[in-house]
């Protein structure tokens, strides 16, 4: 690369100024406290070399800006040579002999897994800026990760997968602590986005090209085209070179790499970068600052001093983390040295000659330095340096696209706001972006601008293997014909046409072949559940036919949206009612309606008798007369022939409502009976499923259908469920009714039932409710990417009416019926239709009776109280109350009684008592003498004199008088003695 002279000059000036500041500080301060710090890196690698340069630059910058600090970090660099043993040996040597206060490194997670145990034993903090495996935490409190661990970036990767609606991915990771650490977190993050992991490719760290090529070919034969790669720098270079070689970096493929591999892209070979064109990657966001630009120039100066390494234009995230790590450690050392000046180099002595290799000295400075590092917080090159639980607090992530010779930033992802795009006119400012804006700025593999679907069909010439479930006897839906000469199989029918139309509506080509689900001998290979299981085993890529969606089946396969209606109905033979039955007149109403009507007839008659008995002469008489009136009066309202005089208004209200009920009942009964006698009516042999089960009738279903399971769930015994394969078989079984070797009803799905009835609707019909089920749908293996697209195609064809056109083409949308035109189902009127009517009349009748009883008790409370207070038996009290109620009420309606020509006062009814020594003036009223002696002495004008009426046991020295109407005063009640007009009554 070309480095401008101006840039080199600036870097040299910075380096020179730093050196001067450092030397001045050392000369001016003789009481400098030294902290020994070990550095363990793979110095032969690009990352190790650049990291050491960054540590030295940070060391120089820190003390040039803080010349008055009383502490200095002394670096002891060791080369781990890229393996665990050398890294561990370097750590042992630094801890045991150099007695360092802290160790920066090691470089790899595998090396850190051993090194942290040494730090725990010596109580020396191990600080790593490049070991990013989340599995290293929380192993020991003396291990600090000054880097963002790999689990923080899985959210950004999962967000990319979710944004582009890829529902299946393949994870490629290396077999190491670094590779294995991210997999559980990545799996969980993808699960939250409803994306399934189709395959996990585990590649050894030292894998040869042949092994990588074999794995790539295996993944190439899969449908999934989304690959998430989490491997080291060297392994990633091999992987992408081989992927490009076999054509897996072409259009339609998606490659997403993690931050470590993306960060080292600038240091990769140009051939590797060329192979990675179109790759997406994530990388922690580094704010663009002036200090970062100066740091980049310093890196260039250091790289120019080492001709074996290529200067990088882009600052690596590991460079920045190494720089901030040195600053954090220097700040922590200053804090410890200020507060504990005696702490440095005060280690307990250990027997260095001991044969125990791991007999390490215990550091007193280490725990203090650990606490100081964990509490350190400052604004570094990577942003705010802040440790949480021993690792760097996560920040936002950049979404990068490999284009040309480098990377292009397309978006920024934050956990709270999702994707945002960078403003080009202002740095570090972002704005929300839509999926379209996000995807439009990405160049995918093969230099394509179109968003890949994430999967491909076919794969290397493979076609979908579609199983066809054929039900014999219904060729309009599905038909299979085999050519006897060529042995070729031809498929036709409604389901075949629907499937072809749906596949043709997809935005891409999907080749397929139909396979009849049968045995080699041509017989059926099993039930529908057997076919579902074969798809589950992926012996077939799909299945079509009259396959109903059920909960149990959905546990094994995925269904598309239904393309045909669902539901189960019951087919029964047609029978007609016998109109010559002697009990036909009872059939218009059901038994419960008859019984309820009769009960209300009696209740209404009883209520009218209670309301009228005390005031109307029509409801009086001997007990037999009362009982006859109770039953007679309500029935007489049928023809409105009652002649009994109604006196009470409460009775009138009861009768009016009851006559309305009678009118409705009469009209309904007449209409129903007329219909039965004039129209031929269908009558199912057994209308209720419960009755079929109770009487032990046999029922039928199609062999292998889920309908048989529904019948078992209803309660039918296994022996009572008979299975058939052809329509002619269950048609013949239905024709025998409930006889042996026959069925009383056949249960089937709605489409086939309609087609069956289109041929035999003069003999069979559907009765009862439709049992709801989901419709027919296409079947795919679990997680198949075709399910969503096929479902969308089904919706599209339904909306534009193409589904209806296919139905009409195959004459199944509205099957015609050649049976009789007028078949009416026989239905008797039930009580349900009259519940409201009976509730109204019952409420009004009971309310009127209650009002009457309350009024009666209130008016006669004295007499009733006297009866209740008597010392007679309970039965005697009841008889006295009944006798009192049986008396006629002479005061409730006197005007009506006066006009009643049938009114006669018996001797026992006394209205008023007059003393025997008094005379009664009848000048303004008409009186009738009650319970008087049979001798009438005389009458004179309007006065009646009653002299010297003796007192005896019969009359009790009183005379009872009662008024009579003018109409009844003319004829005498008793014969007169004598001819003169003045008469006297004597005892």
From TrEMBL:
<feature type="compositionally biased region" description="Polar residues">
    <location>
        <begin position="978"/>
        <end position="987"/>
    </location>
</feature>
<dbReference type="InterPro" id="IPR017103">
    <property type="entry name" value="Iontropic_Glu_rcpt_pln"/>
</dbReference>
<dbReference type="InterPro" id="IPR015683">
    <property type="entry name" value="Ionotropic_Glu_rcpt"/>
</dbReference>
<keyword id="KW-0325">Glycoprotein</keyword>
<feature type="transmembrane region" description="Helical">
    <location>
        <begin position="837"/>
        <end position="858"/>
    </location>
</feature>
<keyword id="KW-0407">Ion channel</keyword>
<dbReference type="InterPro" id="IPR001320">
    <property type="entry name" value="Iontro_rcpt_C"/>
</dbReference>
<comment type="function">
    <text>Glutamate-gated receptor that probably acts as non-selective cation channel.</text>
</comment>
<keyword id="KW-0812">Transmembrane</keyword>
<dbReference type="InterPro" id="IPR028082">
    <property type="entry name" value="Peripla_BP_I"/>
</dbReference>
<feature type="transmembrane region" description="Helical">
    <location>
        <begin position="593"/>
        <end position="611"/>
    </location>
</feature>
<keyword id="KW-0406">Ion transport</keyword>
<protein>
    <recommendedName>
        <fullName>Glutamate receptor</fullName>
    </recommendedName>
</protein>
<keyword id="KW-0472">Membrane</keyword>
<dbReference type="InterPro" id="IPR001828">
    <property type="entry name" value="ANF_lig-bd_rcpt"/>
</dbReference>
<comment type="subunit">
    <text>May form heteromers.</text>
</comment>
<dbReference type="InterPro" id="IPR019594">
    <property type="entry name" value="Glu/Gly-bd"/>
</dbReference>
<comment type="function">
    <text>Glutamate-gated receptor that probably acts as a non-selective cation channel. May be involved in light-signal transduction and calcium homeostasis via the regulation of calcium influx into cells.</text>
</comment>
<feature type="signal peptide">
    <location>
        <begin position="1"/>
        <end position="24"/>
    </location>
</feature>
<feature type="transmembrane region" description="Helical">
    <location>
        <begin position="623"/>
        <end position="641"/>
    </location>
</feature>
<keyword id="KW-0732">Signal</keyword>
<keyword id="KW-1071">Ligand-gated ion channel</keyword>
<feature type="domain" description="Ionotropic glutamate receptor C-terminal">
    <location>
        <begin position="463"/>
        <end position="814"/>
    </location>
</feature>
<dbReference type="Pfam" id="PF10613">
    <property type="entry name" value="Lig_chan-Glu_bd"/>
</dbReference>
<keyword id="KW-1133">Transmembrane helix</keyword>
<feature type="region of interest" description="Disordered">
    <location>
        <begin position="956"/>
        <end position="987"/>
    </location>
</feature>
<keyword id="KW-0675">Receptor</keyword>
<feature type="transmembrane region" description="Helical">
    <location>
        <begin position="653"/>
        <end position="673"/>
    </location>
</feature>
<comment type="similarity">
    <text>Belongs to the glutamate-gated ion channel (TC 1.A.10.1) family.</text>
</comment>
<dbReference type="InterPro" id="IPR044440">
    <property type="entry name" value="GABAb_receptor_plant_PBP1"/>
</dbReference>
<dbReference type="Pfam" id="PF00060">
    <property type="entry name" value="Lig_chan"/>
</dbReference>
<dbReference type="Pfam" id="PF01094">
    <property type="entry name" value="ANF_receptor"/>
</dbReference>
<keyword id="KW-0813">Transport</keyword>
């Amino acid at each position: 690369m070309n480095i401008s002279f101006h840039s080199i000059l600036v870097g040299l000036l910075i380096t020179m100024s730093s050196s001067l500041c450092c030397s001045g500080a050392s000369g001016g301060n003789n009481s400098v406290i030294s902290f020994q710090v070990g550095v363990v890196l793979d110095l032969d690698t690009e990352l190790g070399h650049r990291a050491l340069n960054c540590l030295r630059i940070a060391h120089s910058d820190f003390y040039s800006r803080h010349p008055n600090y009383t502490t200095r970090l002394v670096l002891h660099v060791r080369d781990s040579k890229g393996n665990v043993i050398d890294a561990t040996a370097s750590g042992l040597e630094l801890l045991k002999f150099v007695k360092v206060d802290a160790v920066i490194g090691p470089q790899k997670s595998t090396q850190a897994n051993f090194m942290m145990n040494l730090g725990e034993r010596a109580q020396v903090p191990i600080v790593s800026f490049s070991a990013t495996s989340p599995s290293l935490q929380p192993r020991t409190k003396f291990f600090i990760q000054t880097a963002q661990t790999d689990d923080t970036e899985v959210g950004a990767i999962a967000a990319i997968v979710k944004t582009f609606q890829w529902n299946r991915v393949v994870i490629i990771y290396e077999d190491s602590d670094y590779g294995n650490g991210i997999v559980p977190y990545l799996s969980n993050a993808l699960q939250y986005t409803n994306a399934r992991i189709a395959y996990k490719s585990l590649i050894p760290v030292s894998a040869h090209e042949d092994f990588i090529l074999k794995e790539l070919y295996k993944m190439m034969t899969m449908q999934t085209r989304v690959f998430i790669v989490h491997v080291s720098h060297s392994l990633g270079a091999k992987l992408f070179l081989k992927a490009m070689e076999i054509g897996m970096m072409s259009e339609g493929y998606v490659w997403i790499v993690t931050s470590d591999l993306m960060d080292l892209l600038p240091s990769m070979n140009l051939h590797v970068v060329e192979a990675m064109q179109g790759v997406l990657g994530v990388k922690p966001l580094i704010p663009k600052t002036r200090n970062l630009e100066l740091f980049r120039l310093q890196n260039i100066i250091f790289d120019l001093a080492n001709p074996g390494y290529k200067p990088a234009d882009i600052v690596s995230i590991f460079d920045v983390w190494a720089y901030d790590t040195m600053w954090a450690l220097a700040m922590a050392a200053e804090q410890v040295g200020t507060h504990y000046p005696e702490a440095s180099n005060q280690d307990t002595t250990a027997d260095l000659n001991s044969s125990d290799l791991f007999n390490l000295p215990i550091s007193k400075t280490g725990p203090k330095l650990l606490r100081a590092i964990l509490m350190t917080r400052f604004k570094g090159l990577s942003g705010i340096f802040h440790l949480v639980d021993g690792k760097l607090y996560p920040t936002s992530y950049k979404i990068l696209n490999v284009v040309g010779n480098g990377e292009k930033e397309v978006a920024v992802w934050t956990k709270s706001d999702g994707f945002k795009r960078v403003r080009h006119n202002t740095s570090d400012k972002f704005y929300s972006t839509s999926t379209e804006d996000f995807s439009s700025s990405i160049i995918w593999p093969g230099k394509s601008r179109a968003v890949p679907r994430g999967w491909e069909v076919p794969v290397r010439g493979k076609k979908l293997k579609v199983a066809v479930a054929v039900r014999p006897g219904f060729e309009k839906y599905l038909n299979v014909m085999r050519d006897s000469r060529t042995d070729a199989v031809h498929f036709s029918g409604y389901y075949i046409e629907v499937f072809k139309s749906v596949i043709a509506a997809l935005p891409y080509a999907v080749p397929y072949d139909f396979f009849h689900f049968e045995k080699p001998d041509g017989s059926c290979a099993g039930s529908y559940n057997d076919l579902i299981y074969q798809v589950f085993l992926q012996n077939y890529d799909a299945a079509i036919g009259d396959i109903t969606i059920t909960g149990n089946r959905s546990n094994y396969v995925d269904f598309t949206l239904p393309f045909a209606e669902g539901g189960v109905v019951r087919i029964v033979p047609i029978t007609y009612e016998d109109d010559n039955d002697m009990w036909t007149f009872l059939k218009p109403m059901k038994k419960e309606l008859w019984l309820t009507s009769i009960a209300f007839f009696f209740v209404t008659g009883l209520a009218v008798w209670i309301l009228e008995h005390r005031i109307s002469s029509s409801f009086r008489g001997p007990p037999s007369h009362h009982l006859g009136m109770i039953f007679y009066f309500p029935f007489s309202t049928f023809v409105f022939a009652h002649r009994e005089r109604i006196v009470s208004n409460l009775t009138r209200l009861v009768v009016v409502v009851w006559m309305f009920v009678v009118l409705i009942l009469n009209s309904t009964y007449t209409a129903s009976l007329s219909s039965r006698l004039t129209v031929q009516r269908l009558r199912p042999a057994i209308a209720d499923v419960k009755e079929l089960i109770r009487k032990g009738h046999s029922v039928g279903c199609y062999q292998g259908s889920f309908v048989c399971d529904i019948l078992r769930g209803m309660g039918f015994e296994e022996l009572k469920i008979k299975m058939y394969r052809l329509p002619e078989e269950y048609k013949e079984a239905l024709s025998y009714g409930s006889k042996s070797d026959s069925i009383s009803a056949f249960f089937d799905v709605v489409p086939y039932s309609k087609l069956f009835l289109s041929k035999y609707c003069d003999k069979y019909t559907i009765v009862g409710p439709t049992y709801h089920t989901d419709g027919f749908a296409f079947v795919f293996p679990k997680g198949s990417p075709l399910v969503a697209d096929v479902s969308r195609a089904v919706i599209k064809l339904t909306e534009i009416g193409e589904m209806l056109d296919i139905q009409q083409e195959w004459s199944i949308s509205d099957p015609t019926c050649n049976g009789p035109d007028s078949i009416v189902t026989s239905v008797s009127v039930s009580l349900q239709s009259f519940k409201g009517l009976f509730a109204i009349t019952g409420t009004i009748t009971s309310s009127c009776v209650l009002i009457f009883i309350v009024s009666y008790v209130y008016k006669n409370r004295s007499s009733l109280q006297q009866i209740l207070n008597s010392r007679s038996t309970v039965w005697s009290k009841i008889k006295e109350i009944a006798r009192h109620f049986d008396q006629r009420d002479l005061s409730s309606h006197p005007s009506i009684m006066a006009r009643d020509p049938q009114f006669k006062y018996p001797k026992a009814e006394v209205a008023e008592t007059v003393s025997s020594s008094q005379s009664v003036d009848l000048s303004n009223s008409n009186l009738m003498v009650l319970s008087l002696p049979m001798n009438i002495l005389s009458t004179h004008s309007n006065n009646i004199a009653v002299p010297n009426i003796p007192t005896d046991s019969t009359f009790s020295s009183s005379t009872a008088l009662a008024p009579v109407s003018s109409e009844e005063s003319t004829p005498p009640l008793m014969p007169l003695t004598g001819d003169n007009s003045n008469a006297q009554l004597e005892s």
